[in-house]
Every structure is written in C-alpha cells, then in structure tokens.
Amino acid sequence: MSAKMKKILIEASGCHVHLTQTAIETLFGKGAQLKKRRDLSQPGEFLSEQRLKLVTKDGVIDHVAVLGPARSAVQVELSMTDCRKLGLKAPVNLSGDLSGASDVILVGTHGEMKATGSVIVARNHIHMRPEDAEEYGVSDGQKVRVLVQSDRKVIFEDVPIRVKSSFMPAMHIDFDEANACGYRVGTEAFILYDDPETCAPECHPDMGQMVRQVVETVTDVLRREGWQQPCRKAQAPEQVQPVCAGTDRPCRPATGALPAFCAPAVDLSALGEAPAYKPKSKPASAYIPEYMKATAAVCPAPVIDMKLVTEKAALDLVRSTEEKTICFARGSIITPAAKDVFKNHKKTIKIV
Ligand SMILES: [Zn+2]
C-alpha cells in the first residue's frame, strides 16, 4: 500500500434512536430497561430488542432500532432519505450536537411522546483511541479525506476524527452514504494524507524548480524591457573594466537592440542574494510616441481636443494662455464667432 493512505474499518448504520431512561419508561412502560440483542463495535454500545415507530404528519417509519445504553438526551439519527419520507428538515450534525434538530413523535409499545429537537442526520465520523490517533498521525477534531474502494469509489471530504480512550478505530456512515459508495460488509476504506511527511513525492511539486522557473521568466522579461544588472568597478584601481555584480565576469557590451547586460543574466546559484535591478534611465522624450513627436514639432502648445469650439470657449482659451498659437485636434469645429475671438486676440489657430 502506498504511504499516502491508511486503511480504516468502515461501518454503516441505519436509522436509530438513543433514549433517556425517562423516555424508555414512557415508551416501554414503568421500570422498563433496554434489553441487549447484540454489542456494537464501540465498547458499551449495544443494539436493543426494543423497536419504535417514528411519526410525523407526512409519514411513518416503523421498526426503528433503539440503541443502548440510555443517554442524557433523546437523539433520533435519520438519513436524508428517511427525512424525506417524514417530511422533515434535519441538520447534518455530529452525534451529540442537537442544534437545529427537528421534532418527531415516538411511538412505543406502552406509550408515545413528542421528541422535540431530537432529529439529526448524523455526520459521518471516525472513532479512534489516542494511541490510534498517534498511529494514524491525526488528532481529535481534525478533518480527513476518506477513499472508499468499491465498485462505486467515493472520496468523503471533511470527515471529523473523534478521539476517546473508549473508542475503537472505525468510520461510521449512514445508509444513504453507504448506498452512494457501494458499501458492503468488508468494503475497504482509506484515510488519504496530504501531509508532505507521509504523502508520495508526486503529490508535491519541486519548489526549487518552480522558483528557478520564476527567476528565469522574470530575468527574461527584465532583459527584454531593457533593465540591467548593475555593474560595479573592479576593486583594483588599475582595472577599469566594469564587471557583473557579485562576479568577476566583465560586462557584455550592448548588442543591437539589447542593452549592456551581464552574462549570464542571473547567476542562479546565488538565489539567496536578490540581484539589485535598476532601470536603465532614458530621456523623457524617449517615452513620447512618434505621432506625438510630429505634433510637438508643428505645435509648441498643448493640443486641445475639443469637439465644438464656441465663442465662450474661445474667450476662456485666450484668457488662459500666453501662447501665440493655439492648436486644436483634427476634427474640432470652430464657430465663426470663436474664430473672430482668436483673431481679435492675435492668436493663430492650428489644426493638427
Ligand atoms: Zn459513531
């Protein structure tokens, strides 16, 4: 078996009821006790001889098993299919958690009672003793993934581990889950491990390789963008040849469109020291696109992109600029009145 999974016994339980002593006497008569039919896998737990009827306004489920011993609260554990039969909406809770639990009427041989806040759909879970938890490398409350190996393989996610010294290691599922995963007595189930300690190597990518790939990609982008690894002057005064940072290799002179760049671009063995990249400074004009340079040549003032230049707009413009020439973007419409304003203020208009 692979190290990344560990076998666990799996057991399926049908719908059943846990009762308080008071409820036992209400349903089966004064002084009644649960009569053991057989022990269950968890020590002390047993299936009783007694059976109950569950009743709601929408349906009835007969011959429901009563488990012993008596508990401090009545708890009815149904599958979702059972809930549909009874028209109930019950929460999926761990056994013992009755928050949001639904109501049902219990009918026994000697009486009946309304079990308020008692119906849950039992959340699947794994029982373990502390020593088993240690062996499986899990802890109380931890959630694990469990693969059921059957003709109808299923992986159950978020299965909580419950640790108690009286437990025996076993996973418990209900009949809906048992049917969904093709469960039969003897079906094998395995806890799956994502922990790198126990997981097979193929589960985990090589982080070193991933970092190297990222560095190579970034270096490539930087090189194409014209960034440069800083060169330093050699320590010895007689050596004036600039060398690559952190090495004694001389800098490669610029070739073609590529700027001067240390060869090799990045020394991958020195990943610990991030190379201090500095942008190669360019004159600001280098960032002005060609078409704008052409505009700048013919028009010293900023080009005004205005669809319609009215008389009022023209007045605002002449008051706000000292320029002799006012440039408008191609497509601007200048009204005759606006043209007069520019003329009167001795401004030349250019459409660029
Ligand atoms: Zn259980």
Describe the structure.
Helices cover 21% and strands 31% of the residues. The chain has 352 residues and is α/β, with parallel strands linked by helices. It folds into 3 domains: 1-203, no CATH class; 207-279, no CATH class; 286-351, no CATH class. The strands form 6 sheets. It has a 7-stranded mixed β-sheet with strand order 1-15-12-13-11-14-2. A 6-stranded mixed β-barrel has the order 3-6-5-9-10-7. Strands 20-22-24 form a 3-stranded parallel β-sheet, covered by helices on one side. The model is unreliable at 198-205, 231-240 and 253-271 (pLDDT under 50). Bound molecules: zinc ion.
Q: Oligomeric status of the shown chains?
A: single chain
Mean pLDDT value: 81
Structural class estimated from helices and strands = alpha/beta
Residue share in helix: 10-25%
Query: Number of domains in the coordinates?
Result: 3
Strand content: 25-35%
What coarse outline follows from CA principal-axis ratios? elongated
Number of helices: 8
Poorly predicted ranges (pLDDT <50, ≥5 residues)? 198-205, 231-240, 253-271
Q: How many beta-strand runs?
A: 24
The description of the largest β-sheet is: 7 strands, mixed
The N- to C-terminal Cα distance equals 78 Å
Bound small molecules, deduplicated? zinc ion
Radius of gyration, in Å, reads: 41 Å
Short description:
The protein is α/β, with parallel strands linked by helices. 21% of the residues lie in helices and 31% in strands. The two termini are 78 Å apart.
